[in-house]
Structures are given as structure tokens and as C-alpha cells.
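Record passed on here:
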Amino acid sequence: MNAGDLASWIRQAAERVSADADRLTRLDAAIGDGDHGLNLDRGFRAAVEALPEDVPPGKVLIAAGRAIVSKTGGASGPLYGTALRRAGKAFGDAAEVDAVALGDALRAALEGVQDLGKAVEGDKTMVDALAPAVAAYEAALADGVDLAGCARAAAEAAAKGADATVPMRARKGRASYLGERSEGHMDPGASSTALLLQALADVAGEG
């Protein structure tokens, strides 16, 4: 993957978030502030506008992450922005991203989210989609699967992880204040994380 591919990922992610913004907001209305879809849509629109040209792949993600932090309200901006910036920094100044490098970047994104939000799997957060996605990517990579296949494995694991948040009781964020009333609802952050990883898989599959 090159810088153009990473820019395509951000654009496709923005399209998916925009198309699903109402659903994400409804999910958040059930257990949070009711603004996740709207906030993330605004953030990714800003990320698309901020995409630089003639820079390495890492700089693409760093620029997108900065835009998301500056334009996305609530907790989503810092979390998604940190994920993209950490991933971009993991690429360094490399002109091309191979399967190993992408796996390292996804791991760095997860660590950034966890450093900031202090969440672990089972807390009913975006980590419940991102952590299994990273694990699935790394397992596929260890089995000799190519980049596109690893990205597909990550997307599938993220979707399953998001589904698995439905019966969970939230232990982080505003949803945690609801106690048992947070059960029976999908976590909006996990759902949007699954969207982003599906967009990544789609772009990787086009290469």
C-alpha cells in the first residue's frame, strides 16, 4: 500500500461513516450522548479535506488524525485521532507499506487507544472491536496470508467484536453510568471501528 491507498482508506471510511451516521447516533442515544455518528461524520469529513499530497503514507494518517482531533467532539475525536496518528508514526517515512508494517501500525493504533482511554476488552468500547481485529490480523500474518487477506480477517473480527458488545455491561465512559441498562445495546464506538476496518479491507483488496 502507498500514500494514495491510505488516502483512499480515509475517504472510504468517511463515506461509510457518513452513510451510517444516523444508525451510529441512534446507538449512542441508547447508552451515551447521542452524538457519535454526527461527531464522527464531521471529523472524517475534515480528515478528507486535510489529506496531504506528495507525502509518505505515515504523514497521510497523521494529518487525518490531527483533523479528527480538531473537528470531532466528545471522546471520539481524541480516540480515533490518536489511533490514526499512532498508526502513521509507526510507518515512519516509508514510501510503501507491506503486510508486516500495516500490522505494526494497527497494533500501535490499539495501544494508543488503550493508553488514552484505559479500556480493555470486555469494557464495551471500541477496544472490543479493535483488539480482536489486531489479533486476527496478526494471526493471519503469522500463517503467511497476504496483506489483503490479513485486512479481511481484521474486518471480520472487528464486526464480530462489535456484535459481541450487545450483551455486555459497560465499564467505561458515559454508558457505564447506566449499569445493567447498558446491556442489550451495541457499543457505537465498536460499531464505527468495524466500519473503518471494513473500509481498510476494501481498499487493501483493490490493490
